[in-house]
């Protein structure tokens, strides 16, 4: 199957930054090693969670290069290369291919809101121009545009379009895509709250925000769900469910960066227009980290 390497828990990794906003390569290297040791199936670099919208093009390219180098073939690297300009998406995708990425993740064009025919032509053009496995990315909540299953189904017949990250947010949409798309096309969810149900409904994996803070748990849950072991998958998902909610109390990646900082794995820096997590949410995110077993529970007062 053309997308068989795209299964399991794939982390949409954050881009750690120093206080001055520059990329913290040392922290990034530490995160990559942690994910590999915890069973993460692939690393998605410079996606939404990686603050692709505020990295310059040279920084975008440098982070992809760095993650490819750090992974060194141990697990696949999926590079975020989408844009609302087809020409820019082709340029970014071409760079990722030259850098040695295993696949690219291409979000539907945002703001300009093309028609379904426009989406078909946009993704087809990128696939023609760059010979690398490509994953479509539908996230209506971010782009204001929903790529319909019939459009995805048509694109799934393109040789190097190998899968889709579907963040519509329901297991029913995942099941529909599995039904209408090419049999060798990987249907991945991009919604952690429904990921378990989506994989039990036939999905092949999850490109996850939650995996940033709970990589081992997400890896085990995805493995069980893909295997059809509902009891195990649902038990793990219930344990980490508070994270699926709390990590979206404000726009991603605001909460997940705060959580990773609280865990001591990165600094708290984001780039404007993203701002630090509002103080009123700190306790909620910390409680979710504790309830999920990611950090030790606070000691009870004496």
Task: Tell me what you see in this structure.
By secondary structure, the chain is an alpha/beta fold. Helix content is 44%, strand content 12%. It contains 12 helices and 8 strands. Strands 1-2-3-4-5-6-7-8 form an 8-stranded parallel beta barrel, surrounded by 5 helices. Strand 4, helix 4 and strand 5 form a beta-alpha-beta unit. The N and C termini lie far apart (59 Å).
The neighbouring-strand order within the major sheet is 1-2-3-4-5-6-7-8
Q: Please give the radius of gyration in angstroms.
A: 18 Å
Look at the structure and name the CATH superfamily.
Aldolase class I
Tally of structural domains = 1
Task: From the structure above, extract its key features.
12 helices, TIM Barrel, 302 residues, alpha/beta, disordered C terminus
How is this structure best summarized?
By secondary structure, the chain is an alpha/beta fold. Helices cover 44% and strands 12% of the residues.
Topology of helices and strands:
Blueprint (H helix, E strand, L loop, with lengths): L7 E5 L12 H14 L3 E4 L11 H15 L5 E4 L5 H14 L3 E5 L8 H14 L4 E5 L1 H4 L5 H7 L5 E6 L4 H10 L5 E4 L5 H6 L4 E4 L6 H12 L3 H17 L7 H9 L19 H10 L11
Parallel strand pairs: 1-2, 1-8, 2-3, 3-4, 4-5, 5-6, 6-7, 7-8
Helix pairs in contact: 1-2, 1-9, 2-3, 3-4, 4-6, 6-7, 9-10, 10-12, 11-12
